[in-house]
Amino acid sequence: MKAHVYVTMRRGVLEPQGRAVQKSLENLGYTQVKGVRIGKFIEVELDGVSRQEAENILEEICRKLLANPVIEDFRFEIVEE
Amino acid sequence: MKAHVYVTMRRGVLEPQGRAVQKSLENLGYTQVKGVRIGKFIEVELDGVSRQEAENILEEICRKLLANPVIEDFRFEIVEE
Amino acid sequence: MKAAVCVFPGSNCDHDCYHVLKHVMGLDTEFVWHRERDLSRFDIIVVPGGFTYGDYLRTGAMAKLSPIMEGITEEAKKGKPVIGICNGFQILIEGGLLPGALIANRSLKFICSYVYLRTETSNTPFTAGIEKGRVLKIPIAHYQGNYFAHPDLLKELNDNDQVVFRYCSPEGEVTDEANPNGSLENIAGVCNRERNVVGMMPHPERCAERELGSVDGRLLFESVVNYVAG
Amino acid sequence: MREEVKITPELIREHNLTDEEYERILQILGREPTLTELGIFSVMWSEHCSYKSSKVHLKKFPTKGPYVIQGPGENAGVIDIGHGLAAVFKMESHNHPSFIEPYQGAATGVGGILRDVFTMGARPIALLDSLRFGNPSEPRTRFLVDGVVAGIAGYGNCIGIPTVGGEVYFEDCYNGNILVNVFTVGIARKERIFKGVAEGVGNPVIYVGAKTGRDGIHGATMASEEFDEESEEKRPTVQVGDPFMEKLLLEACLELMKRDVIVGIQDMGAAGLTSSSFEMAGRAGNGIELDLDRVPLREEGMTPYEIMLSESQERMLLVAKKGREDEVIEVFKKWDLDAVVVGRVTDDGYVRVRQGGKVVAELPVAPLTTDAPVYDRPWKRPADQDELQKLDLSSVPVPEDLGEVWKRLLGSLEVCDRSWIYRQYDHMIRTNTVVLPGSDSAVLRVKGTPLGLAISVDCNPRYCYLDPRLGAQIAVAESARNVAVAGAKPLAITDCLNFGNPEKPEVMWQFKEAVEGMAHACSVLETPVVSGNVSFYNETMGKGIYPTPTVAMVGVISDYLNAVTQYFKGEGHFIYLAGPDPSGEDLGGSLYLKEIHGMVRGIPPSLDLAFEKKLHKFLVEGAKRFYFSSAHDVSEGGIAVALAECCFTDEGPVCGFRVSLPWKGREDALLFGETQGRVIITVTSEREDDFLKFSEEMGIPVRKIGITGGNELHIEGLASLSLQEGYEIWKRAFREKLGL
Ligand SMILES: Nc1ncnc2c1ncn2[C@@H]1O[C@H](COP(=O)(O)OP(=O)(O)O)[C@@H](O)[C@H]1O
Ligand SMILES: [Mg+2]
Predict the structure, then answer these.
(1) What span, in angstroms and rounded, lies between the C-alpha atoms of C90 and C144?
(2) What percent of chain D is predicted at pLDDT more than 70?
(3) pTM, to two decimals
(4) CB neighbours of residue D688 within 10 Å
(5) What CATH number should be reported for the domain holding residue C187?
(6) DSSP string, D483-531
(7) Which of C11, D55, D391, D650 lies most in the core, judged by the most C-beta atoms within 10 Å?
(8) Is the minimum CB–CB distance between B8 and chain A shorter than 8 Å?
């Protein structure tokens, strides 16, 4: 089974990478780019679990390891059974 | 306009972060997790451009900046006009 | 003889390189801001270490888009010696002047430490004065120095004698134990096909004076000065 | 509008203001404050900004000296080091934020202290960190150690300032309150020191650096509160650091400072725009007008309350000469940074804040700065202090196998190799570090001069718990000794006073005792206090930390090539012990008692400050004359541990030694007692006669105890250990014990 996890900085929390990238694009002349936020895109492969189990595991590992709940939000989706 | 860019490590590249995460998950008892690959999830906001222009810009900035073709692949989608 | 130290936003070994070139080697040395394009007045070009653009997104990714890269590329084409150290190496790789890629250390930790390097070729301006096989003691300080290349590129590098340094034991053995960051085949530095552009993760500018513990780094600067002097 | 919020008793309490304090606000204003004004009072009168509980005691510190250029009161302290140069330094805590989010908390702590130093016109050249964590076997401790170290590394390495040393202790009392204290020193031209003053009526007030977001609103008040279950809820207040932005800010500020345009400058630290504007106005006896519509914002719809209280990082406020605004803006533009005129200096002693053309806050400066509330809080010696100090050694058996004890101490977290930490720090960048981490103090050369700076941070929290006064004296003496063994003359200190809740008389007693102890030691050693920081409320659920008054000593070597390290330099060097004979009873508060007997009690080891002073002079002069091939002070673990440490570098063991200790008394006290004022020195045979003559002239007792060499750590008749085995225990312990 395959899942995709998205980890993004919480709204309101400074995301320094995106700011620097945007500035850099601006300097290159891409003034149409008004905002950039960089997060993580994590591909997870799971074996021998039901969809429900997979969801439970994903929820758990996001909380415990993949995202830092103090400053980040996460969501996930199962893309292949 | 809003777009999402996904940057993923190409097959064949040993990706130390994904490996480390998988290893820790294994140690935590999540043996069902068989593979983890960590890439980037980039949210881009664009202003005053048509869909076509946006696509051209996104293609360009992915090639020039957001992904390194030696080790990474990218794809993007426009999620909000 | 004139040397350039390229300065990008976030470069931070620029002062150290300047210090060695100017005060240790006695060269006429200038800082050059990344928005400049013309480097034709220089004989040696140094892209120093640091965290250009915070190393955000990818090391070297934003720096490679600076105007100065055009100048560096042009002078490199003329055959002038160019060296990228640490973040400078990452920039030259991103900018396509050197082959391969640099990814996170396998320990996922920043490492600041002296390491040993085996000189793999004397056939570059920066190693011309160092006999092949000689072991140098030079520090590293990086988070992303894990050299990567796809198999065919790796073969090409070996076939063309483009690997300049490999991490090794104090006795010169290239072992996994001596590999600080997981680099493929212990590669610590490479050069381009034309051999005048060299990139390396270790910092020769940090060990060019006796009081700093090692003077092995000085050999690289002496080599290039002699090379330019002919 | 939100501004018209009614001020209720709940709101007042939420802002950590007492009823009396609120009364005082009403008196000062002659009316009710607006919400923004209430917020401003709350942060300016918080413990963190006002030092209201500590001020009366801090006055006791000696702060003057022939070379002191700037004592406490500015962003950092400044001393004259000769050659037209000044060393600018300070230490600061970031304890609470680091507990909540270790990486970002520690990282922004580094960012904050760096701004304090470069704001004065100095280029930072080094960082040191002083860390305290809880029980090493708790998983949370591991997580915190990992995060804090990575955070310091992440910020310091990126901005390119080496972290050259530090200290770390683990005690259960820090389980719920870790300490993260970071020190920075910078170098400036002596005649070019900048201060945080808003001088010159009509001069523009300019905002530079990062945009303002909703970060850390309430951060300053958070640092002045005890933790409880609800603290978790306050999480979003944690700020994220941007070291790249700070690097740009640093370079831009230093570039601008070379021109003659800045009148005053201050970083926006805790309480951001509020504290910087009030403090700058206060120091100059002026006022400031601010127009919030011009403040660069990261988010939409921010209220004046939020803008004034935001703790977004990497921002500075400066006052420029009138008519030179464009120059400021131009320099910042080069570095891709915002610089915006947001107000001007006035002469009426008020800070007046406008938004949308409307005055949203109008407050007199003095009541919020110099005339803020000051408390002489009641203090009382804790009831159990006498009991704690009792140590009946007759009930402490001397272990059979002292070699085994020795090994356990070498493998303890207070002694073992700490390179797991400092390898993650770039400690070589800027190529000034002539003594790398691992020795008693870091030594940095000052380029362009023969000078070297030696720095050490120290505080043994067990000593301070058992006797805060003596413990604080020892912290000063030890830091000075660490600097002196390297060959540097100790000049001045900065400190970070970490304590529990000052509203508890027992904590206040600890504080008062520690301050008086430090003050006394500093006067005897003639090392004034030039800057510092107080962190109270390090308590969780009513349980406080050990009193931890961390000291950072800065010393100068007239020629850095003469710097001495603690490692043996080869075989056949004679080993001497300088200082008092070991007293057979000095085991109170020792590492040995804690590790082997599980006891933290007794009276800390005796200290003779007058002798210390002489000893330091001897060390500095002796180093200058090349009498010592190595010198290492005796601290945790006593002589046995100190001798072993001389044999180990983190790259490998040097050699062993054969020693015999010609004293009688309890064997454990002889080997592991921590009597102060002692140094292990090695001397080559050629220098021996001169060395002995010199020691006698200086009045320092020295005793030859053995010789270096061999593959054994050998103490005649007491204990013996193979060099390799001892080394491996020492080398591996940190990672093993923490499971890293
Ligand atoms: N948190 C830390 N960060 C950096 N270096 C550290 C840290 N803790 C210890 N060190 C280094 O390890 C060595 C030993 O530390 P310590 O035992 O505290 O020294 P001492 O007892 O002489 O004060 C010193 O060189 C010190 O700088
Ligand atoms: Mg010491």
Answers:
(1) 9
(2) 96
(3) 0.95
(4) 15
(5) 3.40.50.880
(6) HHHTT-EEEEEEEEEE-S-TTSHHHHHHHHHHHHHHHHHHHHHT--EEE
(7) C11
(8) yes
Helix (H, G, I), strand (E, B) or coil at D313: coil
H or E stretch at A51: helix A51-61
Question: Is the distance from CB of D304 to CB of A20 less than 8 angstroms?
Answer: no
3-state secondary structure of D361: strand
Instruction: Give ipTM to 2 decimals.
Output: 0.94
Residue D4 is predicted with a pLDDT of: 64
Q: 10 Å Cβ neighbour count for C41?
A: 11
pLDDT confidence tier of residue D226, bands split at 50, 70 and 90: low
Count of alpha carbons within 13 Å of B81, Cβ hemisphere only?
A: 4
B-chain CB neighbours of C105 within 8 Å are 16
Tell me, using a 6 A CB cutoff, whether residue D638 lines ligand 1: no
| Residue D432 pLDDT greater than 90, yes or no | yes
* Residue C169 pLDDT class (50, 70, 90 cuts): very high
Residues present in chain B in total: 81
Interface test with D, best of A10, A13, A14 (most D CBs within 10 A): A14
With a 6 Å cutoff on the Cβ, whether D422 touches ligand 1 is: yes
Expressed as residue numbers, the domain containing C170 is 2-229
Phi-psi group of B36: left, alpha or beta (phi > 0 → left; psi -120 to 50 → alpha; rest → beta): beta
Of chain A, the percentage scoring pLDDT greater than 70 comes to: 100
Query: Is the pLDDT at D130 greater than 60, yes or no?
Result: yes
What 3-state class would DSSP assign to D714? Answer: strand
Q: Which amino acid is at A54?
A: A
Q: Are D78 and D87 in contact (CB under 8 A)?
A: yes
CB contact at 8 A, D730 and D413: no
The DSSP bridge partners found for residue D352 are D289, D362
- Residue written as tokens 């330094």? D89
Phi, psi of D120 (to 5 degrees): -90, 5
Q: Report whether residue D437 contacts ligand 1, using a CB cutoff of 6 Å.
A: yes
> Taking CA C88 as the corner, what is the angle to CA C85 and CA C93, rounded to the nearest 5 degrees?
110
- The two structure tokens encoding residue C104: 């996170």
Closest CA to D308 of D5, D705, D39, D536: D39
10 Å CB burial of residue D524 (0-12, 13-18, 19+) is middle
Bridge-partner residues for D355, per DSSP?
A: D358
D103, D235, D242 member nearest A16 (Cβ): D242
Pick from D163, D418, D423, D590 the residue to mutate for probing ligand 1's pocket: most ligand atoms within 8 Å of its CB: D418
Distance of alpha carbon C20 from alpha carbon C48, whole angstroms: 12
φ, ψ dihedrals at C123, nearest 5°:
-95, 55
CA distance D159 to C9: 11
- For residue D78 the two structure tokens come to 């400044």
Q: Out of D406-410, D572-576, D735-739, which region has the weakest mean confidence (pLDDT)?
A: D735-739
Domain count, chain C: 1
Interacting residues of D695 by C-beta distance below 8 A, sequence separation 6+: D578, D618, D701, D702
Can D573 be counted among the known catalytic residues?
A: no
Residue with token string 């000469």:
D321
Helix extents (H) in D297-396: 304-309, 325-334, 385-389
User: What is the three-class DSSP state of D267?
Assistant: strand
Q: What would the two tokens of residue C77 be?
A: 């084409």
Q: Which of A16, A24, A38 has the CB atom closest to C65's CB atom?
A: A24
If you write DSSP's letter for every residue of D537-583 in order, what string do you get? --EETTEEPPPEEEEEEEEEES-GGG---SS--STTPEEEEESSPPP
| Token pair belonging to D29 | 């204003």
Type of residue numbered A62: C
Kindly list the strands in the beta sheet with C2-7, ordered across the sheet, starting from the edge strand earlier in the chain. C28-33, C2-7, C44-47, C82-85, C197-200, C187-191, C163-168, C111-119, C135-142
Q: Give chain B's domains with CATH numbers.
A: 2-80 (3.30.1280.10)
Separation between Cα atoms, residue D332 and residue D335, nearest integer Å: 5
